[in-house]
Amino acid sequence: MIHLKNVHKRFRRPEGGWFDAVRDTTLHIKAGEIFGLIGFSGAGKSTLLRLINLLERPDHGSVNVDGRDLTGLSAAELRRARQNIGMVFQQFNLMANRTVAANIAFPLEIAGWSRADIDQRVAECLDIVGLADRAGHYPAQLSGGQKQRVGIARALAPRPHVILADEPTSALDPKTTQSILDCLQDINARFGVTVVIVTHEMHVIRSICHRAALLDAGEVVELLDVTDKQVAARSALAKSLLEAA
Ligand SMILES: Nc1ncnc2c1ncn2[C@@H]1O[C@H](COP(=O)(O)OP(=O)(O)OP(=O)(O)O)[C@@H](O)[C@H]1O
Ligand SMILES: [Mg+2]
Asked: Which residue ranges does UniProt annotate as crossing the membrane (predicted)?
């Protein structure tokens, strides 16, 4: 479903020279998986996630999602392909001057849906995330957890096959965190959406992921299999993350 092959991303350092944020990385994520990207700060998790929808373009390597190599698409083709890849952000990224319903409608407006189709889909998505009674509220009137539910509904609205989530619970308290993880798990189970979730916390991996890649200095250093909520960690780095959890 998602095949990253030898992807490499380097950034120019402000002080001169280059920094390799993702190093020649190959990763295969299966359809219907909840896949975690875990590692300490600066490991390259967000960069690797953003390579999946080409928010970052790799210096080399290929990014194949749903059977298409995204690096070979024209700008218009890429815009269409991205409708198949929703994104959820740590800080929610909602539009303050739009209601909950209008935030969820936004990607559908961009994609040219009819008003009737938009209204129906927004109502469905509000229902899925449990916010049917908040349609007319503004983001400032919502709790953090409710804001993230809107973020998830907005990502889900165009019926994507993939949702990318970058630390979606890092701004939330533990109880709210679990409810947001449950919401993502529910969407994965009900609609078969493949979820890629970035986190620096092993409990997030344990809670909802089927598999995870442990990143260090821009490389995948271990693939973790999560069976019966136990993580079999081999490397010292994985063990240290487990102990920190
Ligand atoms: N646009 C950019 N320009 C320059 N350097 C960048 C850019 N984006 C990321 N980096 C650098 O690349 C490295 C990896 O960054 P990335 O954001 O992918 O890490 P991360 O694992 O998501 O970290 P965190 O847990 O802190 O979010 C970091 O050293 C970061 O400073
Ligand atoms: Mg990050």
From this structure: none
Which amino acid is residue 148, in one-letter code? Q
Distance CA 18, CA 129 (A): 42
Whether residue 84 has pLDDT greater than 90? yes
Question: Ligand 1 centre and the CA of 232: distance in Å?
Answer: 27
**How many angstroms separate the CA atoms of 101 and 3, rounded?**
34
Can you say how many angstroms the Cα of residue 187 is from the centroid of all Cα atoms in its chain?
13
Q: Does the CB atom of residue 10 touch ligand 1 within 6 A?
A: no
Ligand 1 and 206: CB distance under 6 A:
no
User: Is 25 touching ligand 1 by the criterion CB < 6 Å?
Assistant: no
How far apart, in whole angstroms, are the C-alpha atoms of residue 124 and residue 108?
13
**pLDDT confidence of residue 225:** 86
Q: Which of 10, 23, 46 to mutate to test the pocket of ligand 1 (most atoms within 8 A of CB)?
A: 46
Say if residues 194 and 65 touch (Cβ distance below 8 Å): no
The pLDDT tens digits for 45-55 are 999 999 999 99
For the stretch 31-83, pLDDT in tens is 999 999 999 999 999 999 999 999 999 999 999 999 999 999 999 999 999 99
> What is the rounded average pLDDT of the residues 103-109?
97
Q: Residues spanned by CATH 3.40.50.300 within the chain?
A: 1-84+160-220
What's the gap in Å between 93 CA and the centre of ligand 1? Answer: 19
CATH number for the domain whose boundaries are 1-84+160-220 = 3.40.50.300
